[in-house]
Amino acid sequence: MCDSFKYLISLVVIGVATLGMAFGGPFAWTGVVLFLLLALVDSLLPMDLSARNIKYPWLAMAMPYLHYPALLLFWMVFASQLGDGSVAGWNLLGGILSVGILNGAIGLATAHELMHGNSRFARTGADLIGTCYGIPITDLGHVHVHHIHLDTPADGDTPMRGESLYRFVWRSVAAQIRETFRLEFAYLERVGKSPWSPFGRLFWGVLFELAFAAAFIYLAGWVGLPVLLITWVVGFTVMADYNYVQHYGLVRVPEAPIKPHHAWNHLKPFSRLLAYEITTHSEHHLDPDVTYTKLTPMADAPQMPSVLVCFIASSIPWLWDRMIARPRLQHWDQHYASAEEQELARQANAAAGWV
Q: What is the Cα–Cα distance from 282 to 103, expressed in whole angstroms?
């Protein structure tokens, strides 16, 4: 298959999940079932180390933008089914998980690609997709903090050794919101504008989020408000899970050069395609401006299993620590870390109670 079309799989997944939601009842679980099936298949496939041969670059550049209308439709079908009672009880749980998981897993990946774009149009696209998992304008902290301070205590998006996903997600989201306000307020002050001026991005981010919430509640009724909030929590938990599984426990001397071993990679076929190459993570941190179709997998960089499997495992802290993270961190400490990083790793192990 032409590489230009392979990335359409994420839109196909959203489309099938939306169709299931439209049928209602037990079909509300379609998104969850698809996610689990893809995780299983991805775990059984070998690593995909191939470079991409993109024959239709215009299509590759357009695809991330197509996810906003696709995700928006998914949400609004969910709201409509909620409003007429077609999704209730255990099937409501299926709807919440389907919408939340796919918005976090696929929405974040496409928003991430757009937030690294060099245009206001691309960043606005990222903001709109961000409304689908509850947190727009995350590019400010991501670009200006995470990409500079990754794997150090100054980065709120780097999980510490022994830190569970459920503790990390709140710390990470709080840090993202804090950095967004700090950076945007500082910028608007420099140009002499009010913090809530339409000239700035905060005004539009809040407006987008309120408009999204109003549309959902209009279709679902007031029962939609708690459902919306719970689904957003699921969505931004999966969103934060990307940082969790791609930087878990890694350490770096502050201001030291960023190297390939400062990120975990997930190079299984569906991990790469569904996540728009965010899982080709070492190369991304070496040059954040490279578009997803040009990222090169590094077989000799630190590796994790399928990112979908890691999402599932990280939701069970003891499974994540014992079966996946700690064995790989031990290997990282011994074979990748510099002498200074080995000392930081020993301190991190002690703080986690691992020694």
A: 24
In tens digits, what is the pLDDT along the chain, a chain of 355 residues? 578 899 999 999 999 999 999 999 999 999 999 999 999 999 999 999 999 999 999 999 999 999 999 999 999 999 999 999 999 999 999 999 999 999 999 999 999 999 999 899 999 999 999 999 988 888 999 999 999 999 999 999 999 999 999 999 999 999 999 999 999 999 999 999 998 889 889 999 999 999 999 999 999 999 999 999 999 999 999 999 999 999 999 999 999 999 999 999 999 999 999 999 999 999 999 999 999 999 999 999 999 999 999 999 999 999 999 999 999 999 999 999 999 999 999 999 999 999 8
Closest alpha carbon to 159 in 246, 248, 285: 248
How far is CA 229 from each of CA 106, 171, 188, 213, rounded to the nearest angstrom?
19, 18, 30, 9
Does the pTM exceed 0.70? yes
Question: Could you tell me if 270 and 150 lie in one domain?
Answer: yes
Q: Which domain holds residue 307?
A: 3-246+257-315
